[in-house]
Design brief:
By secondary structure, the chain is α+β, with helices and mostly antiparallel strands. The chain is built from 4 helices and 4 strands. The chain folds into 2 domains: 50 residues; 82 residues, Alpha-Beta Plaits (2-Layer Sandwich), CATH 3.30.70. The relative contact order is 0.10.
Amino acid sequence: MQQLEGLSLPYQIDGAVEYIQSMKMKLEEMRQKKESLLARKRCGMCKIQTTSKSPPLVQVHDMGPNLDVIVANGLNDYSMFRDIIGFLHQHGFEVASASFSRDGSSAVQVLHDKVGKSKLNLGGQTISRELKELVCGASSSEVVESQLNFWDYKIECDDIWGFEIP
């Protein structure tokens, strides 16, 4: 604009009009760029939200005197990690090492039982089932699975129908 000061008024007006038009074009380009960036951000947020809907994966590996617990895929917050450690402390486990790492919507924890067996003598299967209920919530399949032991009984029917069971 300082270049136009020495020119006559019609030339100054023409220069100002050209400047305003160039600024309008730059403004429009910036708006389009902003919209494209916002669209990319929204698309990225949709991907993050859809991937975080997967249920957490709980695996318990009983390795002799140590109990390794690996929880991955879908554990988004540190509070669930603290709940798992608290659960193990309640069941008599001493956690020798624990690590929490976030990679998007997944986390991995490795917990070791330093003393060997739990004070409550819970087996690896019971700990696994209870950890899954803690992390994922009790589903109907897990409830049915845990009640299958009601059907495990010996049938004493030697005298009922007169058949002999070898």
